[in-house]
Amino acid sequence: DAGVIQSPRHEVTEMGQEVTLRCKPISGHNSLFWYRQTMMRGLELLIYFNNNVPIDDSGMPEDRFSAKMPNASFSTLKIQPSEPRDSAVYFCASTQSRGGGYTFGSGTRLTVV
Amino acid sequence: GEDVEQSLFLSVREGDSSVINCTYTDSSSTYLYWYKQEPGAGLQLLTYIFSNMDMKQDQRLTVLLNKKDKHLSLRIADTQTGDSAIYFCAESPNSGAGSYQLTFGKGTKLSVIP
Q1: Taking CA atoms, what residue in B is nearest to A44?
Q2: Has residue B99 got a pLDDT over 90?
Q3: Which of A95, A105, A107 is opposite residue B100, by nearest beta carbon?
């Protein structure tokens, strides 16, 4: 199994541009999570899906952030328009069951200039 | 709400034991986890313990759980330079809709001195 796959690994964009981050969870995992990691705030849960349905998006910072999961093998996190304070590492994680813990992707390092 | 606290830094000499501590507030936690994050990488699950256990050992790793004090620790025996990383404690609350969510601590950065 290739694990959780995220793309791109690095993204540098100008303020105001739209950014789309992608995630492919592990096949068979029915829950998917988007996290943001910064030095100041640590790991923050942005949104999570169960069976492709968004369950809790209370961590999404603003309306500029949106996430979709059109099918069990793909999810996107979109930021429009992007701002410098959105610069962070964004992780996607998936799990099959509560006891098994999450499997994390390698993350997307986003820099907004 | 749930909260997980860890000290931010720990420095040990190669060959010594490392002990990373964590406290949590949610008494309904059913699973508690330790993750390791190496530079530039995602979080990797190291080990986990079910709340009805008080100890779990896996090679050089020993997890101790004091449920009464809501205290979790990770001991790494014979610490190596490759153990240098950030270690995250996480808990899984035993609640319905949120049962798949983990609450993470801010992580403890372990530095191993050769």
Answers
A1: B104
A2: no
A3: A95
Exposed / middle / buried, residue B51 (Cβ in 10 Å: 0-12, 13-18, 19+) = middle
Residue A63, both tokens: 């309306």
Query: What is the rounded average pLDDT for all residues in chain B?
Result: 90
CA distance B49 to chain A (A): 9
Q: What is the mean pLDDT of residues A49-65?
A: 92
Chain A residues with CB-CB distance to B under 8 A? Answer: 4, 31, 33, 42-43, 45, 48, 50, 55-56, 91, 93, 95, 98-99, 101-107
User: Residue A14 burial (CB < 10 Å; 0-12/13-18/19+)?
Assistant: exposed
> Which of the four pLDDT bands, split at 50, 70 and 90, describes residue A99?
low
